[in-house]
Every structure is written in structure tokens, then in C-alpha cells.
Amino acid sequence: MSVWPRSTRPEHGGDVSVAGVSLAETAARFDTPVYVLDEDEVRERCRTYRTAFPEADVVYAAKAFLCRAMVHWVQEEGLGLDVCSAGELTLAVTTGFPPERIVLHGNAKSPEDLETAVRLGVGRIVVDSTSELARLAAIVPRGSRQRVMLRVVPGVAAGGHAKVRTGTEDQKFGLSITDGSAQHAVARTLDQPRLELVGLHCHIGSQITSVKPYVAAVRRLIGLMARIREQYGVELPQLNIGGGHGIAYRPGEAVLDVRVLAGRVLAELHEGCGRAKLAVPRLTIEPGRAVVGPAGVCVYRVLSVKRTGSHTFVAVDGGMSDNPRPALYGVRYTPRLIGRHSTAAPRLVTVVGRHCEAGDVLAEEVPLPEDVHPGDLLAVPVAGAYHLSMASGYNLVGRPPVVAVKDGTARTLVRRESLDDMNRRDIGL
User: Fold this and answer.
1) What is the pLDDT of residues 145-180, one digit of tens each?
2) DSSP code, position 169
3) For 288-339, how does the pLDDT look when each residue is reduced to its tens digit (9 = 90+)?
4) Edge to edge, what strands does the sheet with 21-22 contain?
5) What angle do CA 31, 34, 37 make, to 5 degrees?
6) Residue 235's closest CA among 200, 187, 181, 279?
7) E strands along 41-104, which residues?
8) What is the C-alpha end-to-end distance of the chain, expressed in Å?
């Protein structure tokens, strides 16, 4: 159970508990599908980052998972918050999170995103294009200045899938160093009296399990900072190297060691700045998945078992509407039978969802007891990140609730989306 929350325990009769709470009882109480989130695991992972990077700004990437309780946990553990929309920003601020500790970024921010960020006073806005510079400068009130960073493409290839590699040329994010776009944006920003350029930002990808790409990115951004000083006489005081820290979804998969990352990145930062005779900028990192992903479990109920030729399909009451990641990235999970003990031999099966898509597959060729049948419960670990946040209303199947577990107690953080919730949005008659 190496990929489950640390508090996970096998229980009598084949059940599993997380933080002292039975998953089978949670399914009975809250129905299925249901996301279960270990609060202490989230908090411990926040502390791991604070310990590894004591002098840096650790900013939680809200896109991985956000709700009001998560906002409180992150704030209480001393992390900042990284948001990508007016919606995420407004939820955080109305929950009480200090706007000056919030970073807004995104490759195509809407006018509402920018106006909300300026109005609420976010600490930093990461600018992704030169056209955004003019729009943002026009929004900032006369006599005030908005702190901004420029998202730079360092030309570093990293990430667990082609669709999550964002540090290379020819993709939608950032300003290229190679073609001069980044340097041009620096000049444009310095010419805007209502914008204060405080640093550079990069995000090279997601599900990265090696430290080397981060070291390479730091080296290249220090080189750009040195050229900016030489050309404009400006030393930028901040450097944000993003997140994308890899976690294990299945036993034996590689993970990014946060302590090793901290040691290598900080060493490169100090040595590189020393060589360039630059003041060491304040570092910012943006972990999201690595904070909340391993703290979550999703529990489903089996609806049918179908044997077709050499394949066995186990269909559950959720699928790509609550977890689109297998369909998007080919991610593989390790479901486990819970709630009863089985002595049957394991058999390779494919766990599929309930939706009208051949690609609605949650786990391919995974071992489950041969006697798995309708009514059984399956639990899928590492379900805390990019599940609810990417969930959809496909087939008008409501999104599952999120239940926090701590010290033997379960409580609802986000309630289940009902048919009434969805019907009220449809006003066409």
C-alpha cells in the first residue's frame, strides 16, 4: 500500500481505513463515487515543502484541487496560493486568504481574471504574452503599480506525457528565450509605469521525477537575469521555477524527492548567481499534485462484470466524468477491492466507467479477485489531484462529494452535485 495515504490500514474483513475511518462505512454513509481526503496527509506534505525550502515562497497550485477547507489548510501551514482564474481567486479571497500571498497566472487570462486580480490586490501576476502587458497596464489604477513576473520558456523538455510538457518551444505557454520574445517582453514591461517587473517565472512540465530539468531551467533563467542586468541595469529580485513534481500512482513508480530537489536547486541558484555576480533572488515553487494527490482516495461501487473473449470488464458507477486523466494522458491506477475479504485467485481485468465512450477506462489489466461482482466496492488511491478539479457534467452525472477524514472522523467538504443542481442551470423553456 505504498501509494496510499500514510494513515491507511487494512482492517478485518477486507476493509481499509484512512485516518481511522472505514472506507466501506464512508461509502455507505456518503454513497459512491466519493472522494476521501486525508487532512493530516495534506498538512504533512505542506510542512515537508516548508522544511525543505525554508527561505523560499512555497505556493500551492490550486488547480490540482481547491475548496474552502483546502484554502484554510494551506494558509495555516504557511503556504501561498497559485490560482488560474477569477473563480479560483474569488473563492480563496472570500474564504479569507490574504490576496498579497496569491499568484495569478495562465496563458490566456480573461478581462475578468485580470480585473478581479487587480481589484483584489493579488501579490503577483505572471504575464504570459506581450499582448497581456498592455491589457493589464490599462486596468491598473493611476498612481499604483501591479507587481508582475514574466513566464519564460527555458527550452527544457520534462514531464510524464507530451501533453504536460510546457518548458519547450512550440507550445502555448510563455515567452521564448531563443527567439527573443522574453527579452522583448522585459523591455515592454520596464516601459510600463503601472507595472513593476519583480522576476521571472517558468513551469517546465508535470509529473517530473528527475531533478536535472529544474537545475537546467534555473541555470538558463539566471543567464537571462544576468543579460537583463547588463542591458537594462535592473536586477530582478524573484525567481519562480513552478511545480510539476512527480508522484507515484502505482507501487514502484519513481517520485521526485523534495529534499534532493531543494538541495540541488538552491546550490545551482547560489553558485550561478555567484558566477554572474547577481544578488540571489528569492525563490518561489508551486507544488500542487505532490501536496494533495497522494492524500486522496476515490471509492466506487461495481455495477457490472462482463467477460468478453479474453477480457473481463468491471464497470463502476463513475468514470471519466470524475477522473478524465486516463483518457487524457493514459494514466494507470491500482484499484483495490475493499469491504469484504476474498480468497479467490486474482485475475487481470479492465476497470471501466459508466459513460458512453470506449475511452472511459480507469485501469487496464489490473489484478482483482476473480469473484468480483456487482455491489462490490473498489478504492482507487492517489485520487486527490486533478480529479474533482477536472470533473465534468458528461451524461449529466453529478460530480462526487469530497469527504475529509481525520482522527477517526469524516466530514463533508464539498457536497455531491445533484440532478437539481444541474437542472436549475437549464433555463431554455
Assistant:
1) 999 999 999 877 655 545 444 445 566 678 988 888
2) S
3) 999 999 999 999 999 999 998 889 999 999 999 999 999 988 888 999 999 9
4) 9-10, 16-18, 21-22
5) 135
6) 279
7) 57-61, 80-83, 102-104
8) 51
Distance CA 34, CA 415 (A): 10
d(CA 273, CA 279): 6
Handedness of CA 273, 147, 145, 76 (dihedral sign): negative
Contact between residue 177 and residue 152 where contact means Cβ atoms under 8 Å apart = yes
Rg, the chain, Cα only: 23
Phi, psi of 85 (to 5 degrees): -160, 165
Q: Would you name the residues annotated as active-site residues?
A: 356
Beta-carbon-side half-sphere exposure of residue 91 (alpha carbons within 13 Å): 17
Question: What's the grid cell of residue 119?
Answer: 481589484
CA-to-CA distance for 321 and 313, rounded, in angstroms? Answer: 18
- The amino acid sitting at 48 is T
As a whole number of angstroms, the distance between CA 415 and CA 413 comes to 7
- Please state whether 27 falls in left (phi above 0), alpha (psi between -120 and 50) or beta: alpha
411: left (phi over 0), alpha (psi -120 to 50) or beta: beta
pLDDT computed for residue 251 by the predictor: 94
For the chain, give the number of residues.
429
Question: Taking the CA of residue 247 as centre, how many other CA atoms within 13 Å lie in the half-sphere pointing to its CB?
Answer: 26
Q: Assess contact for 293 and 331: CB atoms under 8 A.
A: no
CB 413 within 8 A of CB 26: no
Q: At 155, which amino acid appears? A: G
CA quadruple 362, 365, 371, 373: dihedral, nearest 10? 20
* 63 Cβ contact list (under 8 Å, min separation 6): 82, 83, 84, 88, 288, 386, 389
Is residue 342 a contact partner of residue 14, using CB atoms and an 8 Å limit?
yes
3-state SS, residue 178: coil
CA separation, residue 179 to residues 152, 176, 188 (Å): 11, 6, 16
How many Cβ atoms are within 10 Å of 218's Cβ, its own excluded? 25
292's grid cell: 494533495
Contact 177, 224 (CB under 8 A): yes
Categorize the per-residue pLDDT at 206 as very low, low, confident or very high, splitting at 50, 70 and 90. confident
Tell me the pairing of strands 34-38 and 296-308.
Answer: antiparallel
Q: What is the pLDDT of residues 380-390, one digit of tens each?
A: 999 999 999 99
Q: What's the whole-model pTM score?
A: 0.94
Backbone angles phi, psi at 34, to 5 degrees: -145, 135
Q: Please tell me the distance from the alpha carbon of residue 363 to that of residue 351, in angstroms, as a whole number.
A: 5
Question: Partners of 34 in the beta sheet?
Answer: 299
